[in-house]
Amino acid sequence: MQDHTYGISEIVGSSETSIEDAIQKAIANASENRRNIRWFEVLETRGHVEGGRVKHFQVHIKLGYTLEE
């Protein structure tokens, strides 16, 4: 196993569909400008309610990525 140095970023994703969809969209968007993402951790889940129904699911995510040498 190689030694690595990791960077960490925090992002928030949202979706009208589900928490899982919010995670998938957030990671896909982050991957467009952050290379080498290796792991994620959901720090917080929350949502937006309208008319007594969930309108948006939100996830606060920590991303870990390897730094290029």
Topology:
Layout: E1 6-15, H1 19-31, E2 37-50, E3 53-66
Antiparallel strand pairs: 1-3, 2-3
Word description of this protein:
It holds the Pfam family Dodecin. It comes from Phenylobacterium terrae. A three-stranded antiparallel sheet has the order 1-3-2, with helices on one face. It is elongated and about 50 Å long. 19% of the residues lie in helices and 55% in strands. The chain has one domain (6-66): Flavin-binding protein dodecin (Dodecin subunit-like). With 69 residues, it is an alpha+beta fold. The mean pLDDT is 94. The longest helix has 13 residues, at 19-31. Strand 2 and strand 3 (53-66) form a beta hairpin.
The tally of helices reads 1
- What's the β-strand tally? 3
Strand content: over 45%
CATH-scheme architecture: 2-Layer Sandwich
Which structural class should the secondary elements be placed in?
A: alpha+beta
- The total tally of domains equals 1
Name the shape in a single word: elongated
CATH superfamily: Flavin-binding protein dodecin
Spell out the helices and strands N to C. EHEE
Unreliable residue stretches: none
Largest sheet at a glance? 3 strands, antiparallel
**Quaternary structure:** single chain
Compact description:
This protein is of the alpha+beta class and 69 residues long. The protein has one helix at 19-31, and strands at 6-15, 37-50, 53-66.
Features:
69 residues; alpha+beta; Dodecin subunit-like; three-stranded antiparallel beta sheet; 3 strands; 55% strand
